């Protein structure tokens, strides 16, 4: 944030909740004028300083939105270039980077060129990719190890670039904060995999919202490993929250998380990418539990890409066409999102009572899905079943799911819908298999069966009696989703 703000006087949870409400009402409309935003701030709980902070933050947000439209209709008085925003003149920002090219080096020409290319594509001054000397980092602590690399926490002494001062033509920084260091295995000599993750992080995160931010690359001064520097979230991922403290999440929280996740996916898909490894362990929650960030882009790549030689993921969230053919797409992301929607209802991992192994893969390819739980709106159930369809073309889009969440949240904010009445709590239970984790692994199986039509088991409210139905018998009509 800007240094002239005393952040101790700003209640960020309250500020974020106000912006969230306004996003729901106005995000898809044309009501983006700053005056409309200011008129919404007649809340007696908000102090004068908080109101001024919100107004300035929204002005910057408004200016950043102009950058995305690529309409250069203003003349910058500093560099005489046409730009979209006088506050964030991209020519001025990129010229500043050029001035500094000779003042740093990673020691690797390929990495230097990669970072410079990223900086020459910079749009937003708070989403900038840098080379970070290792001596600027301190207090490194091991956090976890995933399927393809290690995660540490670290303090970055001066922090990432937070803003651009168009008057002084200088960058502003956050100051010392905690971050994540992520190393990929065997990254002493950066591989195609390393540059894929770094490049995907930048291409997506620099332009989209709702992603875990990546700020640059460093090199460990002892191991020689190149490492990515990511935004640190001190709250849990969605999977851990559902497992350890499920009562903390209200349906407002759950629908807000689902809305943000589906919105982020829709933006990724619009750019021609698929996430390819979506599961609750990769959805990081904000402290207020109404917002989240999608992370772990180690395997993200172009949609419709066949990867039979390297099928990676957590089995219950992997679509049948991925398990059989290695065919990742935006529709395989939607299959995973349907599993997450089920997990939001039950609080349990799909197929969490069995080992995530070859036997489960075969069951999924045979059409088995987790049981449908009663006590939720029919439209929500239908969306889940559509997401699980063995035919990818019959699955909904991320936009449809986001719009449905918007519909419910808008109704709640306007006082016309009671989410606790729509979503009835039922005591569904499931044993937990000790070997099941949200750790993505490579799977290599041959001679797998062809994917079969989905078989849906619907539990009833009377003692959880069950019946098996084909997808077509439940989905007689398309879901009418209004925003």
From TrEMBL:
GO biological process, one term: signal transduction
One Gene Ontology cellular component: cytoplasm
Assigned keywords, A-Z: Kinase, Transferase
Residues annotated as signal peptide: none
Domain Protein kinase: 137-408
Molecular function terms, GO-annotated: ATP binding; protein kinase activity
Protein name, as recorded: Kinase-like domain-containing protein
Native source species: Gigaspora rosea
Lineage: Eukaryota, Fungi, Fungi incertae sedis, Mucoromycota, Glomeromycotina
């Amino acid at each position: 944030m800007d240094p002239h703000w005393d952040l101790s006087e700003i209640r960020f949870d309250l500020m974020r909740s106000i912006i969230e409400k306004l996003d729901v009402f106005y995000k898809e409309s044309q009501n983006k004028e700053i005056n409309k935003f200011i008129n919404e701030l007649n809340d007696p709980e908000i102090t004068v300083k908080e109101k001024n902070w919100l107004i300035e933050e929204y002005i910057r947000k408004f200016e950043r939105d102009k950058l995305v439209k690529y309409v250069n209709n203003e003349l910058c008085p500093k560099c005489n270039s046409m730009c979209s925003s006088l506050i964030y003149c991209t020519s001025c920002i990129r010229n500043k980077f050029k001035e500094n090219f000779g003042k740093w080096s990673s020691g690797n020409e390929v990495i230097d060129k990669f970072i410079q290319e990223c900086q020459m594509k910079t749009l937003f001054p708070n989403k900038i990719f840098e080379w970070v000397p290792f001596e600027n980092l301190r207090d490194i602590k091991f956090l976890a190890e995933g399927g393809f690399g290690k995660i540490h926490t670290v303090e970055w002494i001066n922090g990432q670039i937070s803003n651009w001062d168009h008057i002084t033509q200088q960058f502003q920084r956050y100051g010392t904060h905690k971050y994540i260091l992520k190393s990929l295995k065997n990254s002493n000599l950066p591989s195609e995999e390393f540059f894929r993750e770094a490049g995907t992080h930048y291409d997506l995160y620099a332009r989209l919202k709702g992603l875990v931010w990546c700020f640059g690359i460093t090199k460990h001064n002892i191991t020689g490993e190149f490492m990515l520097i990511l935004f640190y979230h001190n709250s849990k991922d969605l999977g851990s929250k559902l497992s350890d403290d499920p009562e903390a999440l209200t349906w407002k929280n759950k629908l807000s998380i689902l809305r943000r996740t589906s919105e982020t996916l829709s933006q990724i898909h619009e750019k021609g990418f698929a996430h390819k490894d979506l599961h609750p362990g990769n959805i990081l929650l904000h402290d207020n539990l109404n917002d989240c960030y999608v992370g772990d882009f180690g395997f993200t790549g172009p949609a419709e890409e066949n990867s039979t030689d390297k099928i990676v993921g957590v089995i219950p969230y992997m679509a049948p066409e991925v398990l059989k053919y290695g065919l990742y797409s935006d529709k395989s992301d939607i299959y995973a999102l349907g599993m997450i929607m089920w997990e939001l209802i039950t609080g349990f991992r799909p197929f969490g009572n069995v080992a995530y192994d070859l036997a489960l893969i075969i069951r999924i390819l045979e059409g088995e899905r987790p049981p449908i739980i009663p006590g939720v709106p029919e439209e929500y159930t239908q969306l889940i079943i559509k997401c699980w369809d063995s035919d990818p073309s019959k699955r909904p889009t991320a936009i449809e799911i986001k719009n449905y969440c918007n519909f419910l949240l808008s109704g709640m904010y306007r006082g016309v819908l009671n989410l606790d009445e729509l979503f009835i709590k039922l005591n569904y239970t499931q044993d937990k298999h000790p070997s099941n984790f949200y750790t993505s692994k490579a799977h290599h199986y041959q001679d797998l069966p062809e994917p079969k039509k989905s078989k849906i088991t619907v539990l009833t409210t009377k003692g959880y009696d069950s019946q098996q139905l084909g997808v077509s018998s439940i989905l007689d009509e398309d879901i009418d989703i209004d925003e």
